[in-house]
Request: fold
Amino acid sequence: MASPLSRSLPLSEATRTFVAGDYPCRCVTFKSVAAVAGRVSENDPTVSCERCGRQWTLSYELDELMAGNRAVEQFALDHERHTGHYPDGVSTWRATCRQCPDGVERLSEDAARRWARTHARHTRHDVTLHHAESEETSLIEGADES
Reply:
């Protein structure tokens, strides 16, 4: 059974870049893939990783995990969890505490900002927030609340 996502995505001769949520994933393209036993749609997005020297279709994330528009994010998180690095073109938002060794790396700005605000609120520590591909840094202050 083809997923709703794969049916709604047009396929053309040109390679397309997929944008997932708040972050662009230049690594994900739509192109024809060879059919294998079972089902592989020509419209399933693919993800590549130069470090691993591999490319994957996201049919598992779409059909088995039912990740829908979060298929790219799910694959990127799983890939980092198992290999220690993200696939090509995926960059993260980092929140780093200025006082303690705590911090997080998230795919979306909202998730990193939410962690930073929560950490600053509970610990009164200042937290820096920045994107891996940017020089700009935001400061979330851990000021006292009345």
Remarks:
- Residues 93-140 form one domain.
- The longest strand covers residues 23-30.
- The beta strands are 17-20, 23-30, 45-49, 54-57, 93-97, 103-106, 127-131, 137-140.
- The mean pLDDT is 76.
